[in-house]
Predict the structure.
Amino acid sequence: MAREITGFSNPLVKRVRSLREKKFRKAEGLFLAEGLRILTEAREAGVLPEMLFHAGSEHPLARDLIAAMEDAGSDVIETSPDILSKISGKDNPQAVVGVYQDRLTPLAQIDRRSADIWIVAQSLRDPGNLGTILRTGDAVGAGGLILVDDCVDPFSVEAVRASMGALFTQKIATARWDEFLDWLRQGDGQLVGTSLNTANDYQDVAYDAPVFLLVGNEAQGLPDTYEAACDLLVKIPMLGKADSLNVAVATAVMAYEVLNQKRARA
């Protein structure tokens, strides 16, 4: 359904703008995504927004997205760049803003055999790191990202933006550590932790699918008890003065090593 909103005080504008805050996202089960690239990636993954806001963009991708929304009978709202800015919180808003249902998958519904690689992040704090890890997961064909303990909200505007659309191709689950570990041990899965407390070089060991790559908090790494629960601990050699890599970079290095071992066996 196409309509137009021109007033800043419109209740729908206020409601959608509130989704920039976690408590409102949680209450509504909705989140915001901005920009033609991300919304087009979502559409190609078979996901259309609940509502689409645009400022009269004539870009072919915008026209295709609007047509798909109208065909589906979904809300398409034309508004001004100033109102888009109010919704997104950016001085230079993207041409389109979509409102999506949250994409959390219950842990019990994850089919671990649907992918050879899964990424597990514990107490991740930075939305940029989370988004980059989702992009890495998409790049290596991972099944998804399991967020353990208290992590940054994967549906924050910053995390969604950093994912560049990978949010719509990767399953996302959340769990406490004990819950995750109990679920993991009910089936196949090699839990591989990254740690400085091991002599195992990440390229000198064999990975057995499905591999669950466990990475820790940006500042503190994995707790000792979490490391002890891993089937395998590995480290990435550091030849300079830095003692560790950024967690998103380390995840990418590890994920590609697992992928390359799989390719070598093929």
